[in-house]
Amino acid sequence: MSRKILFWIGIVVLCIYIGVALAAPLIAPEGPTAITGKPLQPPDSRHPFGTNQVGQDILAQLVFGARITLLYGFCSALLAVTISTSIGIVLGYYGGIVDEIACRIIDVVMPIPMFVLLIVLTTFFSPGIIQVSLLMGLMGSIYGIRIMRAQVLSVARTSFVEGARAIGASDLRIMSRHILPNVMPLVMVKFVSSSQQLLLMGVGLSFIGMWDTTTVDWGTMIQNAYSQGGLALGLWWWILPPGLAVIGVSLALAMIGYSFEDKFNPRVEVNRI
Amino acid sequence: MDQICIARLKVIFSSRSGEIRAVDEVDLSLNEGDSLCLIGESGCGKTVMGMAAIGLLPKNARVTGTISYKGQDLVAAPEQILRQIRGQEIAMVSQNSANSLNPVMKVGDQIAESLLIHRLCSRKEAEEKTLRLLDSLGFEDPGQAAGRYPHEFSGGMRERILIALALICNPRVIIADEPTAGLDAQVKTQILRLIRERVANGRTLFLITHDLGAAAFLSNRLAVMYAGELLETGTTKEVLARPLHPYTQGLLASLPSAGLHPIPGISPSPAHFPPGCRFSDRCPAVRDRCRKEHPVMGGAGGNRQVRCFLYD
Q1: How high is the ipTM of this complex?
Q2: Tens digit of pLDDT for each residue in B210-250?
Q3: Structure pTM?
Q4: Is residue B27 helix, strand or coil?
Q5: Smallest Cβ distance to A169: which of B54, B117, B165?
Q6: Does domain B2-89+171-311 correspond to CATH entry 3.40.630.10?
Q7: B56 CB within 8 Å of a chain A CB
Q8: Which domains does chain A have, with CATH numbers?
Q9: Mind giving me the DSSP string for B223-259?
């Protein structure tokens, strides 16, 4: 029962986030970079979250920043899950020497911390947000391949897949009509957990300033608040909104992922009344 | 006229404990329209026989001998030909295991898929054929049933779906491997009746089971298998009325209706068969010769054959 409640809370919160991001131009028509007030003003009726060091409205920055943060979180997760599912299905279905080699390569790459690797890569190549999202997606997929492949292995050994193969179904047909639908639940769970992980990673990267620091997203907002003395001066309205926003979306995604767990993790006990 | 002729079939698996002779030189033939039942206890090799007949043995199985079907040797046939034959000419109804049906695919789609893979008709025709088949197999609302998922059906209904999967391309030969396993008595009778009325008539049935009742109900010829070989063959009526081989006699005596007298001992491990007759350890009529020499299949009057020195 509690898992269901968690699921709905998570979904509702996520929808609120997405809704706010979509409605950003309505909520703050001037845009995130317009200077609309005096610098370092505390919250008032005109600026619900006050202003930053140049007088930009923090609420405007928050809602427009939501678009970018959510976008790179979900897009890189989508890319990661698509890649890991496709490769996982091909490796798990065909097996053989290619599978062996691929698994050894993954074994070697997996221990490398993704965050550090991303910092190194971005330092040398100074990519923009889109390139970093692509990179995050690519690297995030490595971890997922193992999991998808394991699930595919068990589905590929079932009687109905063997039966389909026995009467001459093409490999493509089997992979798309039999194997993929049976691993879909896992794909959904992976998407949710990847979204959470990659979104947080993206905020971290933008906090360090890995891409254009004039882009307004939650990471740069927190970085701004930190480096321009917001923390030192105790200006809570500057740093709390983006910080809490990040925590909130992360929690929402975690709750959704947790609520799936009882269906897909056989070790979790469930009391269904 | 022989439809399927199995000659000197051997299926050997290699394992760490040696060679496992699951099927050891079996000769068997099925005529068109026959209902042959292969009866035996668990582990005697009958399922391997069924798999061999449809060409679905695992890759580590070494097969020698021939299984000829319409002039083609299924043992030596390339996978391409076998895929054409499976489903369209020879189909299998298997046990109702959890894995036989795709849990996330509608039942109607799964049945129609066979037709579509063999490219026998258009999608619309395939749907119509599926509904007609489901109707003839006892589904009251075929349209609704076709739109449901496997877990929404009871065991007996799922077995009917498996039967539909086998029948949809209208094959000539049906191999049924323990079709009533795990079903309760009432449902079992329904399924057996269904097989007799809808599956076996007009087709050749190769039934594999350990259930003597199902054998008596469905088959007109019986072959008794033990430790990879055939011990006795004949018409079902004759074999059950007048069993020749001590093993068959023991099987019949072990039925509840006959007093539940089990045959003492257990069947030999397929990696270490005893020299001589494989049943000698457990045979009440065993003699010296039985332990040293291996008996061969010999005629015993009419169409009956038996592998026992008692009838030499």
Answers
A1: 0.81
A2: 989 999 999 999 999 999 999 999 999 999 999 999 999 99
A3: 0.83
A4: strand
A5: B117
A6: no
A7: yes
A8: 2-32+49-264 (1.10.3720.10)
A9: EEEETTEEEEEEEHHHHHHS--SHHHHHHHHTSGGGT
